[in-house]
Amino acid sequence: MVLITDVKFYLSKGDFWMDLLQLKDKNVIVMGVANERSIAWGIAKRLLEVGANVIFTYRKERSKGKIEKILENYTDYNSAVIECDVNSDESIAQAFSQIGEQYGVIHGIVHSVAFAHAEDLKNRFVETTREGYAFAQDTSAYSLVAVAKAARPYMTEGGSIVTMSYLGGQRVLDGYNVMGVAKAALEAAMRYLAADLGAEGIRVNAISAGAIRTLAAKGVPSFNTILHKIEETSPLKRNTNQEEVADMTLVMLSALSRGVTGETIFVDSGYNILG
Length: 275
Known about the structure:
The chain has helices spanning about 5-10, 15-20, 40-50, 60-70, 90-105, 120, 130-150, 175-195, 225-235, 240-255; strands at about 25-30, 55-60, 80-85, 110, 160-165, 200-210, 265. It is α/β, with parallel strands linked by helices.
């Protein structure tokens, strides 16, 4: 019998961790790795460590190069890097067709894709352009729908789709602007997908991570202020990190969360519960 006090010890043991999650040899797609500081990379790294086969997708050639550079230290693991532009239905269809041919079954997807034009984050929200609004929605929210549709034929054993959200999708956060509206749409899309795909054994959930220093976070003008505020006022009196978000994401991808779908799980030191 494993006691709560023993958890940290046992989680440090690779075999126990792998057996607990049952992700060994599962085929999981990770979308949105920009560099080693990315939340998506933290998740991918954990997945590789527990024996999953990780398929990375990229939009531009420079992103492909960065992923391949990171993977130079992981040559003993099973991984692949495949082009997938989430703003293009043709590119998505081609990517998932290639993944299907190579791996047969998709067991999980990590959707960590979001983007908005810099001016639409820096300007007042009322000044958001029509083109900027549409682009943020297409890239950050509709892409989840498009990816789920393309993956569905290959998720023949059920599976789990996890997308990355942020508190700005539920509350007004200074400087988050159009991205906050896109995250709100993302979480709504997640719930509708969960309802639509549940009968096929496909679960869809969101992880709402706290403020973490990533490349995307640099685009939010008030980011440093948010970091300090969370550290001072959150119940845990600290910020979360890449590893904590990765661990919770693995739980949501695994059989441990088999009864959970349509939920937004907060990993933010409890900051979201404050008024």
